[in-house]
Write a structure and sequence with these properties.
This is Chromosome partition protein Smc. It comes from Actinacidiphila acididurans. With 127 residues, the protein is mainly α. The protein has one domain (3-121). The chain is 87% helix and 0% strand. It has helices at residues 3-48, 50-57, 65-121. Helix 1 packs antiparallel against helix 3 (65-121). The longest helix has 57 residues, at 65-121. It starts with a helix and ends in a 6-residue tail after the last helix.
């Protein structure tokens, strides 16, 4: 095997590795995107349930206003904690997506450099 073909084979292998890494990174990005969508749906549901929450506390006259307010305060506190946790998860997923996007960008740049180098080593045939 000539040194050019050995070098070309080496670049081919590296190119396949980069493509596989880019594919895995893309799949991870998609998974995180799905998780973000799920969290957003949960948040919409939580906000949509506020009316149901008021109904669950009870109708006027069933309990004193103070007891109804206490129940509402507890439910709103739980909702707030849920929203805070979802916000943290969204931030975490956002950071992960940014890191993965940077990694994919680096992989694409590396792939472009390898392709340029391959063209220098073994230019495409002009049939």
């Amino acid at each position: 095997m000539t040194s050019e073909s050995a070098e070309s084979a080496q670049y081919d292998g590296r190119l396949r590795d980069l493509e596989a890494e880019a594919f895995r990174a893309g799949r991870t990005l998609a998974e995180h995107g799905e998780q973000l969508a799920s969290i957003r749906d949960q948040q919409r549901t939580a906000f949509g349930n506020i009316d149901s929450l008021a109904d669950a506390i009870g109708a006027p006259g069933e309990r004193s206003i103070a007891r109804r307010l206490e129940a509402l305060e507890g439910a709103v506190g739980a909702l707030r904690e849920t929203q805070i946790e979802h916000g943290r998860e969204l931030q975490s997923h956002g950071r992960m997506l940014e890191q993965l996007a940077g990694a994919v960008g680096s992989l694409v740049e590396g792939q472009a450099r390898i392709l340029e180098r391959l063209d220098e080593i073994a230019p495409p045939r002009q049939d």
